[in-house]
Structure formats: structure tokens, C-alpha cells
Amino acid sequence: MLELRNITKSYEGKSLLTDISFAVTEGETICLLGASGSGKSTILRMIAGLDFPERGAILLNGIDLTLTPPHLRDFGLVFQDYGLFPHLNVFDNIAFGLRMRNILVGEISLRVAALLEQMNLTGFADRKVTDLSGGEQQRVALARALAPSPRLLMFDEPLGALDRSLKEDLLNEIRDILHKTNIPAIYVTHDQEEAFTIADRILVLHEGAIIRDAAPHEIWREPKSAFVAKLLGIGNVVEGEVIAADKIKTRHGTFTLNCSKNIGERLHLLMQQPSAPLGEGRGGEVIAQIQLTVEDILFKQDQFQVKGRGGLIVHMKNAPRIGDVVAVKVQVQCLSL
């Protein structure tokens, strides 16, 4: 098990990471999700041994890694720019780590052949990596990382250079490989679709701190903070003001909801179209009906995305007309600022 305990890091007097703590268990894939500059890649660099925390500890199976050089940590890394050796062919790129460990030639050949088959690259062994497509190069990079049977795999925005269709295919392949090999993995991305597809657990980073740590479905149901809801595009985040112990006033109406705030305090609410049967809101939520004046309509696959006055967005099976006033049921919950 990999464990980070109270990791702190700053640069030129500016805080990069604050009290970062989490663990990755056997076979678990966690995703570090956040915008650029949130500290995701800095965490990976420290785990890899390419950078060091100012305070805190990084442990593997209870052993502090501080004095362990990168090449002895036995971790695999996959980068956005592939990081392949352009002067080596596909076989030699995949075999590189095995040769560094003085593995027997026959065993290397068997291992590389198995990985080529696993990555749908059979027949590619002698090809130049510079002649491959982006998706093929990333498969070679993944095979190279897997070849030495690492104790941990780390992915730093690995699909950022690929188009959407290639990204979806390769993401599903990576997910399948991780499940089959049972290798623990840390996947860094700013793309919420990637995070929700691949992760067993998502850690949302904001300004160098973890502000949400939960399974994907738990984060979707309860983002808890306005930042997380906005980052992931979960429903509509609206501002409100407490006007009584259990009354929150917004531009879309007043809701009976106890957010444990004092009268006069401002806060954020999350409005979603309910997934549970109407009237069955979860604890800390209410189901309410609001009215929207339609400003824009966009067809989205099997439904229509309707934008109302004030910026609220809902989805409907049938398209209203611009200017119509429509009634919509929403599930409302409190969010922290």
C-alpha cells in the first residue's frame, strides 16, 4: 500500500501542496482531478522520487521512501507526450526496463510478445515508434511501463494529446488492464469524464489541497462544495441567502432547507433534476418545483438541454419554444462555499 501523510510543499514562498494525505490500496485506481496548477503533477513527481516534500512522509508498505532513489522505487510512469525513445523500435522500447534489470533474453522476448498481444500491437515489434499513430505510441508507452511488473503505475494526463474517439477506446483498455493486473494506480487528469470512467476513487484538488475524496458515484450524488459541483458540471450551482432558520432565498425562489447557517449568511445551493422518484429526496435535500423562462435550446443525444433565464440549465425529453415558461422539478441541497 502506498501512503502519503501530511505532505506539504511550497515554491518561492508560495504554497503548492497543503497537508496532502491519502492511501492507495492493492488493485485500487485513484484519480487526482483538478485544474492546472492544483498540485496534481507535483504529487506524482514526489511519489516518483523526482521531487521531495518539505514536510510529511511517503511510504510503501510502511517503509519511508525518502532515501529510495527513483530507479529503485519500482514504479511505472506513463506521460502525455509518451516519453518513448525515438531511436529504438517498439520491441526495444518495451524491453528497456527489463534489460535494465538484467532479465534473461528469452524471458524478455516472451514478456514483450505477451504485452504486444495485450496492447493489440502484435506485428509491431520492429516498427519505428515515430511511424506510429498517437494511440499506438501511447499503447507502447503503457506496455513499457507494465513490462517490469511495477509495484505502482502512475499516469500523468496520458490521453491529453489524443482525439475523443481514440481517448475513449484507450481509456477503456487501460481500465481493463488495471483490473486484470491488479496493479495499484494513480491517474492524474483535469478531465472529469476520464476520472469517472477509470477511477475507483477520486481526489479533487483545489489550490494544493484535497477538498473531496470519495467514489465517483458518491461525489456525483454529494459534491459537498460549490467548487466540486462546478468543476464536474453537476447540476446548477446558485447563490442564496438565509432569511430564516430553514429558509433560503435565491433568484429562482425560496426553499425550505436547513443549511446550518445563520440568518443573513450567503451560501451556495445545488439544483439537480431528481434521479430518485419525486418526493424521495435524500437527507439534507428537498424536492421543489421552479419555473423557467426558456432562452435557448440545444439537442443533446436523446434529450434537449434547455437554458432558462438566470442561467439555469435543465434537460427535457420534448423541446419547448423560446420564451415559454416551463415548470421543472429540482432536487436542492446545501453546498459549502
The N- and C-terminal alpha carbons lie at a distance of: 34 Å
The CATH topology of the largest domain is: Rossmann fold
H/E element sequence? EEEHEEEHHHEHEHEEHHEEEEEEEE
How would you classify the quaternary structure? single chain
pLDDT under 50 segments (min length 5)?
A: 277-281
Q: Work out the radius of gyration.
A: 24 Å
Strand order of the largest sheet: 13-12-11-14-18-15-16-17
Strand content: 35-45%
User: Based on DSSP secondary structure assignment, what is the total number of beta strands?
Assistant: 18
Task: Throw out a few tags for this protein.
337 residues, alpha+beta, 8-stranded antiparallel sheet, 18 strands, globular
